Fold:
Amino acid sequence: MAAQPRQNKHRATERTIHLPFRGKSAITLGKLAPMLLPKILAAGGLLFAFEHSTIAGKIVLALLCVVSVFSWSIMITKLRVIQFARKQTARFRSAFRKDRQPLRLFENHARFPGAPLFNVYRAGCEEMTFQLLGSAEVDETFRARLGIAEKITPAQMHAVNAAMERTVGEAALGLESQMILLATAVSGSPFLGLLGTVWGVMDTFTDVAVAGSPNLATMAPGVSGALITTVTALCVAIPAMFGYNFLVTSIRGMIVEMDNFAAELASEFEHKYVDHNARDPEFRR
Structure:
């Protein structure tokens, strides 16, 4: 019988400890609610600003929407191209390094679409085959003809290097295509938004001067409608800036990979098919 009051006293103590904790939680939620309300009501503020925007401001907003569509389409397309190119490049590297014969994949008619390194490899193999055999065609007698072919001179190897360098340049131009549009969106959108804002503020002050009632209630709608162009411009330029920096860095890395692979392939060709002791015909006497 004596144990029951002790248990009740213990339960009362537990309740006394938990009540302040619940009170703090309620106070914390009460403080967070005013912070969340502006975010929830932000859409209403943008709608109010758009309704009070001038015709010039709405034209600027339409242009910014077009720029946003183009920039996002370029970013998504380029990102997919780069991801696919990296996947295909990894497959090509694995297949290329399985065999020490640099012309083996070319002889087997291997294809790795979307891999810039494979384009460099194919261009180098076609030029090397032409210098060795007089033709870039691969047929049933290709391996036999390659086995009895004489090694080429360093001058002929320069032609092979030139073919690979030309392919690297063409691939780099293809990867960098349309990036100028993304760079224009990054640099031009803020100025376009600033133009809309300044124009809207100018119209607002003109209306206030004509009405002759310079008060906050008269100026606030016009200023709000003018500022929405700057907000929209920043929403267009900021994602485009991050996307542009990421894509440029990725493209530069792929170009460096192509240059390194061209040097690696040239080294393999020189080791197997170039006679460095041979003298060029123009220097022979």
In short: The first helix runs from residue 3 to 40. The CA atoms of residues 171 and 178 lie 14 Å apart.
